[in-house]
Amino acid sequence: MKSGLCLWHSTVHHQLYRLYYCESNCLTITIEYLFGNLISVKNVKMYEDRNKVAHHTDKYKNSSLIVRRGQEFIMGIEFSRPFSPQKDSVNIEFMIGSNPSSVQGTLITVSLNGDSKMSNWKSRVLDSSWTETTVAITPASDCIIGLFSTFVTVVTPTMKQRTKRNPKTDFYILFNPWASSDEVYMDNENERAEYVLNDTGIIFNGVVDNVSSRPWNYGQFKPGVLDACLFVLDFGKVPLQFRGSAAKLIRQGSAMINSQDDDGVLVGNWSENFSNGTAPSAWTGSAEILLSYASKGGVPVKFGQCWVYAGTFNTFLRCLGLPARVITNYCSAHDNMGNLKTEIVLDEDGRMDTEHTTDSIWNFHCWNEVFLKRSDIPPIYSGWQVVDSTPQETSDGYYRCGPTSVRAIKDGMLGYQFDAPFVFAEVNSDVVFHKRDKYGNTRIVSTNTTYVGQLIVTKSVGSSTADDITENYKYPEGSPEDQLTMKHAESRGMDRYQPSLLAIDVQLQVSANQINQGRDIGVTVYLTSLSTAHRSVKVSLTCKADYYTGATRSIFKTFTKTMNLPGTSEVGTDIFVTVSFSNTIGYDLNNVTLRMEGSGLLPLKTKEYSQIASGSSVKWIESFTPQYPGKKKLVACLDCAAIRNVCGQLDIDINPKNAGIN
């Protein structure tokens, strides 16, 4: 019989023993193993601060633990007594979604007893003391990303005891560009700092010969943004199984950032009426957009255009751990017909026939690139992938685009998923001009193989300057590599027009002065005949205001004129010159003098006008016969009391006599 008197106790090898004194004075020693009772869990610690620094997630304004897959993190478990790997069976369970399943990868079980066969996640016990057992957990490098719940389960032959749900032990798992085993691994630390951790940026816009930019706050670390990004996936019903694959996730995400089809984040608006929303040009960043969308339960935000879509998608991607950047393509084609060429239809007068032209060329267009390893295509085509959330064309039934390999676009290898032909046309399609007569018949009058994709830029690493990445997308025009690219593209359905036009012996060049709001625009058309024969040229000039997408806003000036070109200007051949002036001042001009002369061409001549009424024009045609070869210059000036310093000039190259005759 045991006495209630405890003489001593001691702890040996984490096991507690007691020695009892028998009341009959018979010294009987019994050793009782007090740990026959079930071990229980008192507390679970996630060591948020320590883990966030190690996982490059300490910038997130979120109290929960945030880790990156494929990288070890630390957690602590307080038991009711010391944990014994030999005698206690304890598992940690991580769950995501409403119906966790080990088969679907939404229920992950790791054992503290050294059994690694239960999951492709890894665990190891770092330290076990009386108060706490410290455990290291390594999520699989291809695991689902999102918000997981944590449970600790004690297992006996007859029962399982699982801890209750505790939101304080919930944690987020993100993609990991720092882990070589992750498909989004990027080995350059400066690039990781730029494309994952930088929460501000520059988005380039404007036109190809006048590149401009605007700042953009990505704000991926702001409070609530991470949950908003996950809400986008949930609201879009993106299967959890897709969320372990970067390619599948970003393809679904490109559809969800626009509101077409699925009530996604942003409503597009390319009109001038933004009265029931926010003008695209007014946004300063993405956080406001994403937080509004999530807080209102999936009500699309008004309004977006391409740079807003790209900026918001960039936040979404970086927030989830994907290396991403915003790209601007100047003279970006939109191929509506899928024939890999951009077709412009002109009417009889040479003006764009908007009714029959379905393709367009944007001054600039913004999309995103994501850096990842593609397991579904040859390894050479991994790296930067184009993804575009601006709703232009449907892909597999949804308005989305990509991912498609930048390198594959450059090589014309358009058979690899996804949407490579559309992106190729944006940067490298031929522009084909058709002329349509009044009977509806069309003929090809011109082609341009260099206009589309003239410049492609992104923000430089570590600075706000533009990084020209055009060579990532296309080889130099006409190079052997470019010719091979076009052959590859033709084999995938690119319909290239091989012109069989008459030789062109008249060159045309148009130039305009700097455009300032509220002031007149000066446009000069230069015609040069390369023939010795007479040429009659009909010139049609249309001046219109366009949206940056190429859509016409208004036509404010049309001009048609037939001009006669003699052949090559040479000694002894008569040349006609026309000086014209239109009074757009808004009032009559009185006592006007026109002067014209050209050294070695034409002696000083003058013409007087008593009045040039407002809105009227004058034309002065003069002929002369050059006597000397060489580069000459004709100068004409108009003068009156109301306006001064109105001058123009014409450069003429005079050839020796009979120079144009073979």
TrEMBL record:
**GO BP terms in the entry:** blood coagulation, fibrin clot formation; nervous system development
Keyword Methyltransferase listed? The answer is no
Name of the protein in question? protein-glutamine gamma-glutamyltransferase
Q: Which UniProt keywords apply?
A: Acyltransferase, Calcium, Metal-binding, Transferase
Q: Which residues form the Transglutaminase-like domain?
A: 298-391
Its Gene Ontology molecular function terms? Answer: metal ion binding; protein-glutamine gamma-glutamyltransferase activity
Active-site residues from the entry: C306, H365, D388
Q: What is its EC number?
A: 2.3.2.13
Lineage summary: Eukaryota, Metazoa, Chordata, Craniata, Vertebrata
Which InterPro entries does the record associate with it? Ig-like_fold, Ig_E-set, Papain-like_cys_pep_sf, Transglutaminase, Transglutaminase-like, Transglutaminase-like_sf, Transglutaminase_animal, Transglutaminase_AS
Q: Which family does it belong to?
A: Belongs to the transglutaminase superfamily. Transglutaminase family.
Cofactor(s) the protein needs: Ca(2+)
